[in-house]
């Protein structure tokens, strides 16, 4: 999704979700006045901050523990310059005096520190007994060395690839943020534990140190761009209450939120920690549905407020989007157990759908801790700030007046804590469930029977290493590339969220696997699922079964399930392409998916006119009747947002193509024939009279009478100066969704031969000119999914070396190992898996078994597939000097010859899934022979047309 650029509040209001009024975002701390402008300003803190080093010049932020601006500057200084190196270098002189006069903190050689930052060396942030990631930082957005070589293989175990994972990549508070979740999670974890900051941060976190922390919460999505966040339920926030006075405890969001200390956010797979500016440390680790959270209160911080006891604010009602609709809360002081039961609105269409969530907190750490004071609190932003000490329950229902739900929860202190040196430490266990509070408690007891933080971290790491070892790369891989690769691989397994046994409503007690956060399939069908198909057949099968079960129970294949409920459809019904991709690769692999039933779901999608296709299914009637989705049609049978006619048609066509492939495979000849016909409907939305930049034939919306309605093809492109509503808004009258017609006019992945005939009468040179023009004029929008395939389309015009050049450029311009290292929302690993395909030198054609060969960034790698076997791909004569945005003359960047098990192939442009994995556990050796001779490598091979990647209209994809 491109929702960072989609004016979120406006969108939802425009959609008529009246309960999502602008003020409903204010629990996140934004001011009630002009929330839209406020939020948009918050999305661009980085550039603002660079202009004015606000930490030292704007000391009124809630850093009340420090006494003067000078102290604040000092605090800034004595933290490691985590992603703030820009400030450090630039503002060196500004900070220096504070540094030199410090006496209370361990001495820092400031010159040396600055030097190290410039060199990009990673700082260590370590404690005696916990594993910590060296914090990644960068001063100028460039890539930095991570480690000189890959981690060594231990004698008896898998490689520890977690060392190459930097969870902070994609957490930068940029103008087009990645919105990556950097907190603790196991692979596909339902529990995702991390801090929530009070700014635009849909995954809870971002690295803007001007954004205060409101608590640590246990449910999150990753990489999504929803307007005001997703989940964030059941925050806990460690606080110190002056004189241990219960009534003085800061409990409401505004009162309790607090800045982080600079440079103290650290993370690695399975572990996350931050430290607040009052030195309280917050740490988390997790299992699938449970976690341990540890808070360390330094004695000095307690002393400063004449306090003896750590206090904890437990928040029941404030999820990130502020959607609480009622529930029940109960505290058992004897057991030290707090349970929360709540109903909330989903993040992507919260006025429409709601879900239940339950948490169970254990506060006694198996008897090693004991509660002191306890009670409940409530508050709002208009004067209520109440604590009822000794009370243990609360029941609330939905408040029907006003956009702001009440803030409420529990407030506890400990009289007995664990000690960490002279500091006080509390360890709390949390279980989470979508079924019941009892199940939340059972999940915690089952998954974390002992209160052993380090053990849970290690278990999580082991689970991660099992996933990460599915791809092994050569030990002489460029360290930056290795870090990019394993970090992306990590994010490729971070979501969707495995909520098996936690289904609710129709999915309660479903015997199928159940995954949440399919958010949205529009994002993930292109690269996420094809990437999963390389190494992870069992995981893939479970998720596919989830999609099928969604159709069984709701009548539509899920498109954008988030928070356990349907979300808004962006284009087609792209789950069809996920099911088709799985079926064509794994139908015969003996996995527990009934392929006939899978096809029944697909067929129903292809032939059912969904009554309401905003939340699943398609507007099939009109589409089939006209051969395109018409503009300004009175569709009397179905309902949905009647926009995006051009791009929706293209996606419907691609959905149909995927379904066709499965029909063909299963011998359903009639369906296959019909859907083959529909696979050519793309032609019906190209208007040859639309001209731009000397090229003609662009996708346009079209009336029912066949006339096209003209829109400039650069509308909604990056060069469109007018910030138009190009998303789901009704005002989007441009016929396309979230990118330009110019870009969509290159999106016919299954029939480029037909497209090239359409656009340039089959003249490949002319087509290439058009694609070059597209890039040269800045029409390419790297931050969003419709662009994923664009850089490799040259290969279809028989000029594969141009795809190689373009992919190098796109990767080095848009991806790096800094926090800002993503060009847009990661979208549940969509971006991560796009990057990884590029690094492997392959690009998938979803719903088929074909991959386009480009040029690896990694000298050799092995893909391990537990069902099919393994394949080692070696780039023979790999040349690391080719790893540049612009490939230098003489660098061996181009694939000249392709060998499979020693046998030379005719085509150097495509390779099939069954060539990589013939099955039966066999090992395959693939060699790409790299060459600097661009001219010689610049065709798909001696076989002419048959060496080109497949196209439907030239006889490709004829068998599955
Ligand atoms: C959650 O709390 C509400 C309100 O007290 C109650 O009606 C409902 O039964 C509870 N649900 C569960 C699963 O405990
Ligand atoms: C890298 O791999 C090669 C070949 O497998 C091996 O001989 C070499 O020792 C490895 N180097 C390191 C530093 O692990
Ligand atoms: C999801 O969770 C279930 C229940 O624990 C487990 O059996 C399954 O293997 C998990 N799936 C994945 C892909 O992790
Ligand atoms: C088709 O309908 C549109 C919208 O009503 C109209 O502007 C156009 O002139 C019509 N075209 C023809 C050929 O009648």
Automatic annotation (TrEMBL):
Glycosyl hydrolase family domain sequence ranges: 439-920
Name used for this protein in its record: Glycoside hydrolase family 92 protein
Biased composition (Low complexity): 19-31
Ranges annotated as biased composition (Basic residues): 37-49
GO cellular component, one term: cytosol
Domain of life of the native organism: Eukaryota
Gene Ontology terms describing biological process: carbohydrate metabolic process; glycoprotein catabolic process
Keywords: Hydrolase, Signal
Location of the Glycosyl hydrolase family 92 N-terminal domain: 164-433
Gene Ontology MF annotations: carbohydrate binding; peptide-N4-(N-acetyl-beta-glucosaminyl)asparagine amidase activity
Cleavable signal peptide: 1-25
């Amino acid at each position: 999704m491109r929702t960072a650029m989609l004016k979120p509040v406006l969108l939802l209001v425009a959609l008529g979700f009246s309960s999502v009024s602008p003020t409903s975002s204010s629990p996140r701390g934004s001011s009630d006045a002009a929330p839209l402008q406020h939020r948009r300003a918050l999305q661009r803190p980085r550039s603002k901050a660079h202009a004015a080093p606000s930490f030292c010049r704007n000391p009124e932020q809630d850093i009340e523990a420090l006494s003067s601006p000078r102290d604040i500057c000092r605090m800034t200084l004595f933290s490691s310059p985590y992603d703030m190196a820009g400030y450090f270098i630039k503002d060196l002189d500004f900070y220096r005096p504070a540094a030199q006069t410090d006496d209370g903190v361990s001495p820092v050689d400031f010159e040396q520190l600055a030097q190290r930052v410039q060199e990009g060396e990673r700082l260590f942030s370590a404690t005696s007994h916990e594993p910590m990631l060296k914090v990644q930082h960068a001063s100028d957005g460039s890539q930095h060395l991570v480690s000189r070589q890959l981690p060594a293989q231990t004698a008896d175990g898998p490689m520890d690839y977690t060392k190459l994972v930097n969870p902070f990549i994609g957490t930068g508070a940029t103008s087009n943020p990645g919105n990556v979740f950097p907190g603790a999670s196991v692979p596909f974890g339902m529990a995702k534990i991390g801090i929530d900051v009070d700014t635009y941060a849909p995954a809870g976190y971002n690295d803007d140190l001007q954004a205060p922390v409101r608590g640590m919460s246990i449910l999150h999505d990753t990489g999504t761009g929803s307007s005001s966040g997703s989940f964030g339920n059941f925050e806990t926030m460690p606080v110190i209450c002056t004189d241990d006075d219960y009534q003085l405890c800061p409990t409401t969001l505004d009162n309790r939120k607090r800045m982080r200390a600079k440079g103290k956010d650290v993370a690695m797979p399975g572990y996350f920690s931050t430290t607040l500016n009052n030195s309280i440390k917050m740490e988390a680790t997790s299992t699938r549905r449970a976690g341990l959270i540890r808070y360390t209160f330094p004695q000095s911080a307690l002393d400063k407020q004449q306090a003896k006891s750590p206090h904890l604010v437990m928040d029941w009602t404030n999820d990130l989007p502020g959607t609480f609709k009622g529930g029940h809360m109960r505290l058992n002081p004897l057991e030290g157990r707090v349970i929360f039961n709540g109903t909330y609105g989903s993040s992507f269409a919260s006025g429409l759908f709601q879900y239940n969530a339950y948490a169970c907190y254990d506060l006694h750490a198996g008897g090693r801790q004991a509660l002191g004071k306890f009670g409940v609190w409530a508050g709002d932003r208009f004067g209520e700030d109440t604590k009822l000490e000794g009370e243990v329950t609360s029941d609330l229902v939905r408040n029907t007046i006003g956009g702001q739900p009440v803030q409420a929860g529990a407030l506890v202190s400990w009289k007995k804590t664990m000690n960490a040196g002279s500091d006080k430490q509390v360890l709390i266990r949390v279980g989470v469930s979508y079924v019941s509070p009892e199940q939340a408690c059972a999940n915690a007891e089952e998954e974390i029977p002992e209160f052993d933080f380090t053990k849970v971290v290690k278990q999580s790491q082991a689970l991660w290493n099992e996933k990460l070892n599915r791809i092994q790369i050569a030990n002489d891989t460029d360290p930056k590339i290795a870090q990019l690769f394993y970090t992306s691989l990590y994010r490729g397994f971070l979501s969707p969220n495995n909520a098996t046994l936690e289904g609710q409503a129709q999915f309660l007690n479903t015997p199928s696997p159940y995954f949440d956060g399919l958010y949205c399939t529009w994002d993930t069908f292109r690269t996420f699922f094809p990437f999963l198909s390389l190494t992870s057949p069992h995981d893939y099968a479970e998720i596919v079964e989830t999609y099928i079960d969604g159709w069984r129970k709701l009548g539509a294949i899920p498109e954008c399930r988030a928070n356990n409920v349907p979300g808004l459809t962006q284009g087609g019904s792209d789950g069809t392409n996920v099911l088709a991709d799985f079926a064509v690769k794994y139908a015969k692999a003996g996995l527990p998916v009934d392929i006939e039933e899978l096809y029944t779901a697909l067929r129903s999608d292809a032939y059912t006119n969904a009554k309401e296709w905003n939340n699943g299914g398609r507007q099939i009637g009109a589409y089939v009747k006209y051969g395109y989705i018409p503009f300004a049609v009175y569709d009397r049978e179905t309902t949905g947002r009647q926009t995006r006619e051009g791009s929706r048609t293209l996606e419907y066509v691609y959905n149909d193509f995927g379904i066709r492939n499965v029909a063909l495979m299963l011998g359903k000849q009639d369906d296959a024939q019909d859907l083959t016909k529909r696979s050519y409907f793309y032609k019906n939305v190209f208007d040859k009279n639309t001209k731009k930049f000397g090229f003609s034939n662009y996708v346009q919306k079209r009336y029912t009478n066949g006339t096209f309605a003209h829109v400039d093809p650069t509308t909604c492109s990056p060069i469109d100066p007018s910030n138009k509503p190009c998303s789901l808004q009704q005002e989007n009258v441009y016929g396309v969704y979230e990118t330009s017609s110019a870009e969509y006019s290159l999106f016919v992945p299954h029939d480029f031969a037909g497209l090239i005939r359409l656009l340039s009468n089959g003249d490949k040179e002319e087509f290439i000119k058009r694609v070059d023009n597209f890039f040269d004029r800045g029409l390419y929008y790297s931050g969003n999914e419709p662009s994923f395939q664009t850089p490799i389309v040259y290969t279809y015009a028989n000029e594969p070396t141009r795809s190689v050049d373009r992919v190098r450029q796109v990767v080095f311009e848009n991806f790096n190992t800094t926090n800002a290292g993503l060009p847009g929302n990661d979208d549940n690993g969509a971006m991560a898996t796009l990057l990884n395909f590029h690094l492997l030198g392959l690009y998938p054609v979803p719903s088929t078994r074909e991959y386009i060969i480009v040029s690896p960034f990694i000298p050799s790698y092995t893909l391990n597939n537990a069902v099919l076997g393994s394949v080692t791909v070696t780039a023979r004569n790999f040349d690391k000097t080719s790893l540049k945005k612009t490939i230098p003359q003489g660098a061996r960047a181009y694939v000249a010859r392709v060998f499979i098990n020693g046998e030379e192939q005719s085509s150097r442009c495509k390779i099939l899934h069954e060539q990589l994995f013939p099955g039966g556990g066999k090992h395959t050796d693939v060699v790409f022979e790299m060459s600097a001779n661009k001219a010689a490598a610049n065709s798909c091979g001696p076989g002419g047309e048959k060496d080109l990647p497949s196209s439907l209209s030239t006889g490709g994809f004829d068998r599955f």
